[in-house]
Model the fold of this input.
Amino acid sequence: MSDSLWQFHEKAIVDDHKRQSLNGNADCLFYIPGVDCPHCGRSFGSTSQFAFNCPESILEEVRNVDRKTPCCNLEQWQEYVNRWKKAFPSEWKNLAIEPGTGFQPYQWAIRKIRETDLFWPGSTPIISERLQRVLLKNKVTGASLHQVVDKKANPLCYYNLLLLNDPRTDFWKKESLLVDHCEHCGYEQYRQVKGQQKGYNQLVRKGEIPRKYIPEYEMFTSHIFNGFIVTPRVYDLIKNLDFANCEVRELTVID
Ligand SMILES: [Zn+2]
Done:
């Protein structure tokens, strides 16, 4: 393991209008519904995304359910998910599914696309075809790339960059306190413990990442640092592309 890494994150733009015009907005085209739980009284849905397109055989039903009942009761939700799961790619059939998870494709609304290689339109970044090719050709690990579509659902030469690690589950939840949990719908609420955020802020200020938070991937997200982080090999492969929309900085790995 090398002793430095590189962080790419969105450049801070105060003017919301300017931010919009640079990055646009993106969201999944189809979703698993959220849940209205009769036991805890909560309605909720996550912001996570599946790394695959909504299967053709269930697309029509998913679309209709999403339009009519973006949140449904627990029994109905369970019925949809058990049935829809059968159509999922085999490696996804046995995974736990969170309410509100979105399918690919990611739909991008932007007025004018600038000549740059990385955009920050929503919960995950969008990259150019040029950057996508570099990542694929060099078999960079940790990234799952999915072609995005425009407002009319036509494919664009840009890709949704999904990072496969899950720092919220792997680290953040373990370091925080579970203060509420519903065994029926799976809702969990966490609170940070004393000093936790202060410690994170200090790492951000110093640009230091503890080795224990680094997964076995060359590209990954962090529960402390915004955007994503890459190894020196990936940095060398991509550093000459155009990252006008980003702040890029070197992080020091500490033990
Ligand atoms: Zn509940």
